[in-house]
Design goal:
The complex is a heterodimer. By secondary structure, chain A is of the alpha/beta class. In chain A, 64% of the residues lie in helices and 10% in strands. Chain A has 22 helices and twelve strands. A six-stranded mixed beta sheet of chain A has the order 6-9-10-3-11-12, with helices on both faces. In chain A, helix 1 packs across helix 11 and helix 2 (36-77) packs antiparallel against helix 11 (326-367). The model of chain A is unreliable at 1-18 and 628-646 (pLDDT under 50). By secondary structure, chain B is of the alpha/beta class. Chain B has 22 helices and ten strands. Chain B has a six-stranded mixed beta sheet, with helices on both faces. A four-stranded antiparallel beta sheet of chain B has the order 2-1-4-5, with helices on one face. Mean pLDDT of chain B is 79; it is low at 1-18, 81-95 and 639-661. The interface between A and B is large, with 185 and 196 residues.
Chain lengths: 646, 661
């Protein structure tokens, strides 16, 4: 797939735990400042929307009180004339008062209705603007986080990628960003809104009816505790659900990807049982969640309802005592909803916060990572390269204090030479080729190209002179042309065709109905292994690099194709300084210099003839690895196999 | 490995998403079949919902009574105290629906308070009762819904196994996976909370509407004036949002595909100096996804405020119209307006509007859940094209004679991949299949264990047509070793034992030894009990191959099919694999898709395949002597093989050779 890295370094990265430092959240929240105007719109709307919301019960009270006044006035006026005056007097009003009230009341009610309508519209507009703009800010922020993460990850050196799998990085850029976005875009806004609503309501309640407020107040801490317990209890349950869902999906995934294996071993019944177990596990956990919810959710509503009942009783008491009007009473119970509702939201958001903080921490961890391979300040471009490569006492460790993967390797490859690298897996072949384009930096010693230390020139210019073709080829979504022009997006069509011809790819490309514009599926799925490899060769050829790194083995292709590929490789190597991880005989025979590596050291060097004479280890590798294709099924081996009890 | 999937199929998936269900009622009816099993639980749920809804409807009524029976009279008393007692009309207007005896004119504030307290206690009691009922309802409904979903999942899983390889050559496994998990997930999200709320909501709406209509039909109609507007708003906004989310999904899909590809191939990008270009490309899809999300958000953000505003409007209408009527002391078509009625209707409207808002917000979810269920049922409806015949018998113990008689196979109707092909392999024979890519080699291998059915002719093992026996019994006696071995994320031992459940540890180790896998397995951190990562992660390709050979060895099949791997393993490992395979093949009928000269030379017969037909057959030497297609193939492909230049002396560099084609 990718440029291979030797046996992945063992150090597992310390994963940050489930909860993060809340201070990281502040750093994330500062990103809101990048979108000041939209944020201003969102938070400004929040205040207006909440204020409008707070007005509504007031308006309803007005309308009810108006109706009640009218009703009372009408009642009194319908009394026998002699009783009217007395009744009016008892309310501190004259008959004339009542009469004007009655005639004005119709207008008052209409006015109140209109007011509610107006407020409903204003409230709707602002509340829309609040949600919409907050969402916008959060989307812009998510965009920024993803952009920065992507740019950072693209440029982090191989040593970082050795330790961080694609899947993990994907989760950072998708899930973690989304969690953070939800918190900042919704959680934070809702929290603020809840707070404003709660405080606003309490202030209003306090000033309108202190006695009733005192009835409500003790319920608040109780409710908050319940909400927080609720959240604290359910979060881990949901995490468990996630774990079990992914366990279930793993079984499904394996059965799909390993479909043929399951079938050919006729293991459907066992797989069915395995899946059923996973499904039952998930079901049990879902029901555990359901039990918790079934208990906690009604409790929350119960608290709110009992609060209402209490207010109804004590409010009723005040009405009977004449200190509270019906409208005020109704208003109070409406306001009460405004108390419990935000409480619930706050309890919920507090729980979201720790998750968001953990996500923020993981995001910033990546953004703050120091890139191990970076241009020196004032590094110059490497131009007009001849291709003279030297390793000067190079030692390499994947991490400090680790085993050296290369120790004190020195060699000199004059421009145009072919250097064959030979050795067992883990002997350091791949490390040598990874140090040249500065995928890693040498721990000690120097890597020189045309006598420039590779660390003294810009990474981009350095790599532009080095072409790489490896055994497993990654192609990209896009057309065949795009893939050949991968390293040189602006290359002309003629150049692309020429490269493809030299790589023996032109003919099969032209056989596709769309030729060079044939789309290459994900990971090159439309092409065979051999076709992919030839496109990779064309891709390297197009760069016309002075230095070439390649692996001369061919992946699973039929023999005709293999032959063609090797022809193309020979073509590619001509006239360039080439480093070849040698898998075939012709390479070592043609090499100007063979480096035999063992455990990170060069144990022998020279040409084929020289080494065959002087180096035992070479002779051994030569016969075992390169000649290995020869004789397998000797009759002795066939016999040997019968004895096993199967 | 899957049969080659078509190009560029990804992406279709996302267009399916967030769509409207095509036949919602059919899907729901089908769902009902799954729910039926839990009929009794559902009945209980229904009773509970009715009871708790009754309590919820009762509460505003009681609140109305609080006003009409105690508060209003008490207030009136305050001013009528001065008036002579017994004047008619002083309390006459109040409602007649009081549950408790109305207090007389002599009642004291204390009496009113006591009456009030009684009602409040009742309300509180209702709250407690309704909490209990709600909890129970919620649990039972969850139990039903989750169980149904579990059964559905298992049904899908089982159905997938009934499908043939053919299905997966048309549908990428990844797509099927994403569909099943995503669709199950959308159904999941709708099946617990929303389903209860939906049921309760609908019942509440109906009930409240009924109560209002029976209490005061005209006032009720006036109160419900805005309801059609709410329905309209919900459908419109949901439709718009759904359309917008379709774009979002595909934009997010692009972002994820881009991330996946760029992160997985970050080394290539750096090697080719593509970082800047990639960043630019990514930001394009990144921005597109952001803008699509913002657009979709506009609709979702608008729905709630709109409904809320409409809710206020309806409350204004209730209070205003009621107030005006009360004021003018007009009868509303013969009904008397009372203060209590207004208060009660305010409560009703609230209770009526609240479930509407709730359902509205869930509406998109509900629709995509139905659409998700529809797709799941669609998958379940895919007819398995490979089923055991009625009365199929288990395959008797195989001796190993394989015969193909006039076999044709087509993936696409009319295009034969194998055309009228005949072959016979005697028990114990090794058959090498060679030929250019696309000649039909893999198809032959797939027909023997009946991964596909022939379109004409017959595949017979020991004279038995493979279609006459159960597939499981057939496959259990045939081993397949794939070029790209698939391992499960389980222990090494479990992976080997996959070939023979219930094999003893000693048998597992013996198989590993035969496959020459024991040496590296013992060096793993926990030996045979080392747990492998996904798809055998943590092992090299060669090591995975060795384990898959051990697995096949343990199964001890009479017929073995293998796709010879020349894939990315170093030469030494390849030799190991080769040696292990030789041992495995011994004494079994085997079909080898051959890539190596040594295999072909050892084969009892070599079949040369081209364009779906066997054009030459025989032993290596015979074929070579014929000087035909095989000869050309051999000259172009194997000539470089060091063997070719004779057995002595150092091999010479290969001269360029005129190819077979």
């Amino acid at each position: 797939m990718a440029v291979q890295t030797v046996a992945s370094p063992p150090r597992p990265r310390g994963r940050s735990g489930a909860s993060g430092d809340p201070r990281v959240l502040l750093r994330a929240i500062r990103y809101v400042g990048h979108y000041r105007w939209i944020a201003f719109l969102a938070y400004g709307s929040l205040f207006f929307a909440t204020a409008a919301q707070l007005m509504v019960p007031q308006l309803i009270q007005t309308i009810i009180d108006t109706v009640v006044q009218a009703f009372v006035a009408a009642q009194i006026l319908s009394l026998p004339a002699n009783a009217q005056a007395a009744a009016a007097q008892s309310m501190g009003k004259t008959i004339a008062d009542l009469q004007t009230t009655q005639s004005n009341l119709t207008n008052a009610i209409l006015a109140a209705m209109l007011a509610i309508l107006g407020f409903a519209i204003v409230r709707a507009l602002f509340s829309f603007s609040q949600t919409y703009n907050a969402e916008r800010v959060s989307q812009y922020m998510a965009y920024e986080f993803r952009r920065d993460l992507f740019a950072k990850i693209q440029r982090l050196s191989f040593s970082y990628h050795d330790q961080n799998q694609t899947g993990q990085l994907m989760i950072r850029a998708t899930d973690d960003v989304e969690k953070l976005r939800l918190f900042i875009g919704q959680g934070l806004v809702i929290a603020l809104q809840s707070l404003v609503l709660l405080v606003g309501t309490l202030v209003i309640l306090w000033f309108t009816n202190r006695a009733l407020t005192l009835v409500v107040l003790p319920i608040l801490p109780l409710a908050l505790v319940v909400f927080m317990v609720f959240g604290a209890l359910t979060q881990p349950l949901f995490r468990q659900v996630q774990i079990r869902i992914s366990a279930l999906n793993t079984v499904l995934q394996e059965n799909l990807a390993g479909f043929k294996v399951v079938k050919s071993f006729a293991r459907e019944p066992q797989e069915h049982a395995r899946f059923e177990r996973a499904a039952d596990g998930l079901l049990a956990q879902q029901l555990r969640v359901a039990r918790t919810f079934s208990f906690l959710m009604p409790v929350i509503f119960l608290i709110a309802n009992l609060g209402q009942a209490a207010v109804m009783y004590f409010g009723g008491q005040q009405i009977i005592g004449g200190t509270l009007t019906l409208g005020e009473w109704q208003k109070f119970s409406l306001y009460l909803i405004y108390v419990f509702f935000p409480m619930g939201q706050l309890g919920f958001i507090i729980n979201l916060m720790s998750q968001a903080a953990a996500s923020a921490q993981r995001i910033f961890e990546i953004l703050d990572t120091k890139n191990q391979v970076e241009d020196k300040p004032g590094a110059l471009d490497l131009t007009a390269v001849q291709g003279h490569v030297q390793f000067d006492n190079v030692t390499f460790r994947y991490f400090k204090g680790g085993e050296p993967v290369l120790s004190r390797v020195s060699f000199d490859a004059p421009a145009g030479q072919t250097v064959a690298l030979l050795g067992a897996t883990g002997s350091g072949k791949t490390t040598i080729i990874n140090l040249l384009p500065r995928f890693y930096d040498a721990t000690e010693g120097r890597v020189l190209i045309d006598r420039h230390d590779v660390r003294d020139v810009t990474v981009e210019s350095l790599r532009s002179h080095i072409g790489i073709v490896l055994q497993e080829t990654t192609l990209f979504t896009g057309t065949i042309r795009d893939n050949i022009a991968f390293g040189k997006p602006n290359a002309s069509m003629d150049a692309v065709t020429a490269a493809a011809q030299a790589a023996a790819a032109h003919d099969f490309i032209m056989e596709f109905p769309e030729g060079y514009n044939t789309p290459v599926g994900e990971r090159g799925s439309t092409l065979s292994g051999g076709q992919k490899q030839r496109i990779a060769i064309a891709r390297a050829l197009l760069l016309n690099p002075r230095i070439l790194i390649l692996d001369d083995s061919t992946s699973s292709v039929d023999l005709t194709t293999e032959y063609r590929i090797q022809k193309a490789l020979d073509q590619l190597m001509a006239g360039r300084t080439s480093f070849v991880i040698a898998q075939r005989i012709s390479t070592v025979l043609n090499a100007d210099q063979i480096l035999v590596l063992d455990k990170g050291e060069v144990v022998a060097r020279g040409t084929h003839e020289e080494l065959l004479e002087s180096s035992e280890i070479y002779a051994e590798i030569y016969t075992s690895q390169l000649m290995g294709d020869k004789e397998f099924a000797t009759p002795e081996m066939m016999k040997e196999s019968v004895g096993v009890a199967i | 490995m899957m049969m080659g999937g078509g190009p560029g199929r990804h992406g279709n998936l996302f267009q399916d998403e967030a769509r409207k269900p095509a036949a919602a009622s059919a899907t729901l009816a089908r769902f009902w079949i799954y729910f039926k099993r839990y009929g009794i639980v559902l009945l209980a749920v229904l009773v509970l919902i009715v009871a708790s809804t009754y309590m919820q409807v009762l509460t505003p009524n009681l609140t109305g009574q609080v006003v009409d029976c105690y508060l209003t009279p008490a207030t009136q008393k305050l001013f009528s105290a001065a008036a002579p007692a017994g004047i008619p009309g002083a309390t006459g207007i109040t409602a007649t629906n009081c549950w408790y005896a109305q207090l007389g004119a002599q009642a004291t504030a204390q009496d009113y308070l006591a009456g009030l307290g009684g009602l409040i206690l009742l309300i509180a009691g209702l709250a407690v009762g309704s909490a209990l009922l709600t909890g129970l309802t919620f649990y039972l409904m969850n139990y039903t819904g989750q169980s149904v979903l579990r059964n559905l999942r298992v049904a899908v899983f089982d159905h997938i196994h009934r499908l043939s390889l053919g299905y997966f050559s048309k549908h990428e496994a990844g797509d099927v996976m994403t569909r099943v998990t995503m669709d199950a997930d959308t159904v999941q999200q709708a099946i617990s909370f929303p389903l209860v709320s939906l049921l309760q909501g609908v019942l509440l709406i109906v009930w409240v509407a009924f109560t209002m209509l029976t209490t005061s039909p005209v006032y009720a109609v006036i109160s419900l004036l805005v309801t059609p507007l709410m329905f309209f708003a919900t459908t419109w906004f949901s439709d718009q949002a759904r359309k917008a989310f379709r774009t979002v999904r595909s934009a997010v899909g692009d972002v994820n595909a881009n991330l996946q590809e760029s992160f997985a191939a970050v080394r290539e990008a750096q090697a080719f100096n593509r970082e800047a270009e990639n960043i630019l490309n990514f930001n394009e899809s990144n921005a597109a996804s952001r803008d699509a999300s913002i657009r979709a958000t506009a609709f979702t953000s608008a729905l709630s405020p709109t409904l809320e505003a409409l809710g206020y409007v309806s409350m204004a209408i209730v209070a205003g119209v009621g107030g005006l009527l009360l004021l003018s002391r007009q009868n509303l078509l013969g009904e008397t307006m009372s203060l209590g009625l207004i208060i009660a209707f305010l409560g009703y409207t609230q209770r009526f509007n609240q479930p509407i808002s709730q359902i509205s917000v869930m509406w998109t979810n509900i629709q995509s859940a139905i659409a998700g269920a529809e797709r799941i049922f669609g998958l379940l409806d895919t007819a398995p094209d490979l089923v055991d015949k009625p009365g199929a018998i288990p395959m008797p113990s195989i001796r190993g004679r394989v015969e193909m008689q006039n076999v044709s196979a087509e993936y696409e109707p009319g295009e034969c991949v194998l055309c009228d092909l005949n072959l016979v392999a005697e028990p114990g024979q090794m058959v090498a299949i060679v030929g250019p890519t696309g000649a039909g080699k893999t198809t032959i291998a797939n027909l023997i264990p009946r991964f596909y059915d022939v379109t004409a002719g017959a595949v017979k093992i020991d004279g038995v047509d493979v279609r006459d026996v159960t597939a499981a019994s057939l496959r259990a006696q045939i081993g397949v070793v794939l070029q790209d071995p698939f391992l499960f994320s389980d222990t090494v031992a479990a992976n080997i034992r996959y070939g023979k459940p219930g094999a003893t540890d000693a048998e597992v180790i013996a198989a590993a030894k035969l496959a020459r896998a024991d040496t590296f397995i013992e060096r793993l951190p926990e030996g045979y009990h080392t747990k492998l990562g996904e798809r055998g992660g943590g092992l090299s390709q060669g090591q995975r191959q060795l384990i898959s050979i051990a697995r096949a060895a343990l199964a001890n099949p009479r017929i073995l099919i293998l796709d010879e791997a020349t894939s990315s393993v170093d030469t030494r490992t390849e030799r190991l694999i080769q040696a292990a395979l030789e041992k495995l093949l011994h004494g079994r009928t085997s079909f080898v898709i051959a890539h190596r000269l040594s295999t072909i030379r050892n084969a009892d017969q070599v079949l040369v395949l081209n364009a779906g037909q066997i054009i030459e057959r025989g032993k290596h030497e015979e074929l070579l002597a014929q000087g035909g297609f095989y000869h050309d193939l051999y000259m172009s492909q194997f000539r470089r093989d060091p063997d070719f230049s004779g057995n002595g002396g150092a091999p010479q560099p290969v001269p360029a050779m005129a190819g077979g084609k």
